[in-house]
Known about the structure:
The protein is α/β, with parallel strands linked by helices. It folds into 2 domains: 132 residues, NAD(P)-binding Rossmann-like Domain (Rossmann fold); 117 residues, UDP-galactose 4-epimerase, domain 1. The protein is built from 13 helices and 11 strands. The protein has a 7-stranded parallel beta sheet, with helices on both faces. A two-stranded parallel ribbon has the order 7-11. The N and C termini lie far apart (42 Å). The mean pLDDT is 97. NADP nicotinamide-adenine-dinucleotide phosphate binds next to helix 1. It comes from Dactylosporangium aurantiacum. This is SDR family oxidoreductase. It holds the Pfam family NmrA.
Amino acid sequence: MTITVTGATGQLGRFVVAALKRQGADVVAAVRDTAKGESLGVPARLADYDRPETLVPAFEGTDRLLFVSGSEAGRRVEQHRAVVEAAVKAGVGHIVYTSITRADTSINPLAPEHRATEELIVASGLPYTFLRNNWYLENYTGNLGTALEHGVILGAAGDGRVAAATREDLAAGAAAVLTGDGHAGRIYETGGDVAFSMADLAATITAQSGTEVAYRDLPEDDYAQALIGFGLPEGFARVLAAADTSIARGSLDVATGDLSRLIGRPTTTLAEAVTAALKQRG
Ligand SMILES: NC(=O)c1ccc[n+]([C@@H]2O[C@H](COP(=O)([O-])OP(=O)(O)OC[C@H]3O[C@@H](n4cnc5c(N)ncnc54)[C@H](OP(=O)(O)O)[C@@H]3O)[C@@H](O)[C@H]2O)c1
């Protein structure tokens, strides 16, 4: 059985390829940069969502396709349509798509592109599984240096809770679906077992580092301005700030246990992720 992974050179895709290799699966990496793909240690084929002509050859012979959502918000419906059409043309047996928490109803500004993609996949008639991934824990632990330096974490998420999970756990969930049976037609709300608030995050960092870090909640527009001040492009800053407002309203407070059931163990906790991130800082 051949499993093809798109976005295989990305941070999530690399973990999926590694997990599949450990399980002895027959893996093909579908990548937009074949030179980068060589480092994966599996056959790499060119597959650029912006170049539909590359996609059918990349997917040929694929029994199961992990379709990792693209990273260019605003351009993804067109790109994803090309991927789904190519999967149909290539005769892919089953498509597994990395979506977003509650894609069908979410007020998260990033959800509509995922909702549209899920609809395209359903309409394609291909057997499918949706992995509605919650936020990555790394979104919160990847930048601990700044929090420790300033003693503050900024956001607009209020008391909203996030059932974030590490990329590695989410990748293990994807690998379990890709190599397992009985997942066709299933929608998994994949995330951490325990949702946490930004105050919980600040308290965990404080407890583990010994440095006082507080969460400061800002109005959405002020948070967007702060992100722009940190150098983010305005459009992206505004989407992130609006996403935080959606978190305040519960958009990511969805802890279902789906991921831990898929991987057969509890998901990595906030405390464990903070420990690992602090260790990495040395
Ligand atoms: N849950 C979350 O918190 C969260 C956060 C951010 C993003 N996401 C979503 O989850 C996806 C995977 O996350 P990640 O951490 O692995 O992101 P990432 O490290 O940015 O990787 C994105 C992958 O998509 C590939 N890609 C982008 N545009 C493409 C195109 N036009 N054609 C083919 N491949 C393309 C990239 O290729 P290259 O390696 O060549 O760049 C990369 O391999 C993201 O793309 C995004 O949709 C989720």
